[in-house]
Amino acid sequence: MTGNVWVVLPLAWVGGGAFLLGLIGRLWRRARNPILAALTALIFGGGLLLQLPVFAEVNGALLGNGGLPRWGTAAPGGIVLEATPSALLLSTLALGMGLCAALYSGGYMARDPRYPVYYPLLLLMVAGLQGMLLTTDLFNLYLFCELMSVAAYALVAFRRHTDTAIEAGFKYLILGSVGTLVMLFGIACIYREMGELALPLAAFAHGIWGRVGTASILVGLGLKSGIVPLHTWLPDAYGRAPSSVSALLASVVSKSTLIVLLQVCLGLGMPASDLGLLLILFAFLNMTLGNGLALVQENTKRLLAYSSIAQTGYIMFSLGVGLRYGLPGALQAGMFLLLTHAVMKATAFFSKGVCHFYCDTSTVAELRGTAQQLPLAALTFSLAVAGLAGVPPLAGFVSKWFILAEGVRAADALIYVGMAIFLLNSLLALGYYLPLIVRVFQPLDKEDTAPRFALSPWMAGVLLLLGALIIAIGLSPGPWLAWVG
């Protein structure tokens, strides 16, 4: 193995930390939940620090000072990891959200006796995602995808004492396994035609096997990204998983898989204009179906899940415009929306988890009185939902504004129609976002008791941090947009 060892250190740190925590939980039976939560947060934080040297080298490469940092061996059976700018951005986002989830779980998982299993699974899921973002060959992409997926299946079904969690986990397992099998079939087809799996391919696979392989990989990763009509697992998985897991799945896992999909298709030689057109057309389906079905949901987490499908559509539209018309600004705007969506959707799920933890609320109707009982959770939930709706001056507004501004540059009839659909869907989303905010601040009836709960410092700290980020990004988007750029 040769190359820059800093490329692999964050991945090795998180993956090794998962096995270490599993060993600690097995041997030290009296290890309390806050201790394991703190150790998990320490591992995620260490992973973020280990990425700092990689940031410096990638920035140097972008300025023309050498190539991108790589590690590994290109020999048959070897593996090469490369820290591309998008991989570094998304890996940092995954580690940051993992850190928030670990800290939040210090209070959230206090009543669950199976917490020693929970934290290693959380680390393994993020480690698998990191590997998917860094690897440069299709077979190792499949292996890292399986690592991430298996951990995610177990986390979705973690509350196994409830039938709904088992049902959601089983559905996710079946459909996710179909996705990985289809992807593996596609990889076999690519290898049959080209005789290699390293990306990018030296030439586009024009034969029947190459085209079938590319289409199969597109379907497999599209299913894991929640692209309509391959989205059917998503509402159940997000709706029944622990809120900390739902936050990670919605904020970084599915969205990062979408970026991996684009990188793989471009690496296989698929024309950027064709891939962009495909993204734009499917973005219309994601926006419309996600917002339309969110309107009729009574369960709050399922509503947020369908909202995530719609938000994926917004991101796909911006990325599709950038690829179709060669507009780097549209790609930048799409990645900026991915960043802001991660912060806002994680805040929404974390806040909803607080409501369920203290008040056992599941439906939208049960959110009534939240402001009286859990004022901080009500505030951060409202900030997140208002941001997702695009209310100025929050993070969601500026990210959508940048997308529309870049769409105008395309000067094409299809994009004008797409922007109209984008705006109509944003207005449609107000039909379920605004009632959520109203319900949260609606007081209970006088005869109902409304005790005010003392929020766990673990959960309160995370809510305060993410709520402040929603406001900060909205008021000063320049540094964040430049970082994404």
Radius of gyration: 22 Å
Mean pLDDT, to the nearest integer, reads: 89
- The outline comes out as globular
Q: Kindly, what is the distance between the CA atoms of the first and last residues, rounded to a whole number of angstroms? A: 31 Å
Give the helix level as a range of percent: over 70%
Question: Largest sheet, order of strands side by side?
Answer: 1-2-3
Q: How much of the polypeptide forms β-strand, as a percent range? A: under 5%
From the helix content, strand content and strand pairing, which structural class follows? mainly alpha
Number of H- or I-type helical stretches: 19
Q: Low-confidence parts lasting 5 or more residues at pLDDT below 50?
A: none
Sequence-ordered SSE layout with sheet pairings:
Layout (H helix, E strand, L loop, with lengths): L1 E2 L5 H19 L5 H18 L1 H11 L7 E3 L7 E3 L2 H24 L6 H20 L3 H19 L6 H32 L13 H18 L8 H7 L2 H25 L4 H23 L5 H26 L2 H32 L10 H4 L1 H15 L5 H16 L2 H29 L15 H19 L2 H7 L1
Antiparallel strand pairs: 1-2, 2-3
Helix pairs in contact: 1-2, 1-5, 2-4, 2-5, 4-5, 4-10, 4-13, 4-18, 5-6, 5-10, 6-7, 6-10, 7-8, 7-9, 8-10, 9-10, 9-12, 10-13, 11-12, 11-17, 12-13, 12-16, 12-17, 13-15, 13-16, 13-18, 15-17, 15-18, 16-18
